[in-house]
Design a protein that fits this description.
By secondary structure, this protein is of the alpha+beta class. Helices cover about 30% and strands about 25% of the residues.
Length: about 160
């Protein structure tokens, strides 16, 4: 399934959720007659529900990177709900275009972040960026490994 088709499908699903009253908006949705505008954040919100264990997504191409090291920006820390996702998407659009979502199994909370994706041979640089952005861990996309920055402990996903 190509990325444009996936995006279109998610937009249609978002429209259905909005029309049924299942999607919650933080601000009043823009309406023209009886049609609600579906935003990129709406589509990512739906995507997150189909990927509850986590994801990294390049939002301009709708591609899921299969390699690299994902590191969140501190500006988008502690973002959990649909209202927060608007800010995360806006940040991502001006900082490389990646949005990540992950489930903290300890708290049961889902987090959204604007993320920077480093090449996998740039572990030192990614770790430094993570520390500068007050991150607890960074994530290697190809292997599903979490690297804890406080102790460089690796934890498989």
């Amino acid at each position: 399934m190509n990325s444009r088709f996936k995006h279109t499908l998610l937009c249609v699903l978002s429209l259905i959720l909005v029309a049924c009253g299942s999607a919650r908006h933080a601000t009043s949705p823009v309406q023209t007659t009886s049609v609600t505008t579906v935003t990129l954040a709406d589509s990512i919100w739906v995507y997150s529900h189909t990927h509850p264990d986590g994801f990294t997504l390049q939002i301009s191409t709708w591609e899921v990177p299969t390699e690299g090291i994902a590191v969140a920006y501190s500006d988008t820390q502690n973002r959990h709900d649909r209202a927060d996702l608007d800010f995360v998407v806006s940040h991502a659009q001006s900082h490389g275009g990646y949005v990540g979502g992950w489930l903290d199994k300890d708290s049961g909370r889902f987090y959204f972040d604007s993320v920077r994706v480093f090449p996998e041979d740039s572990l030192a640089q990614a770790s430094q960026f993570g520390r500068e952005n007050a991150q607890i861990a960074i994530y290697i996309l190809s292997s599903g490994e979490e690297i804890r920055l406080d102790s460089t402990q690796r934890k498989g996903n």
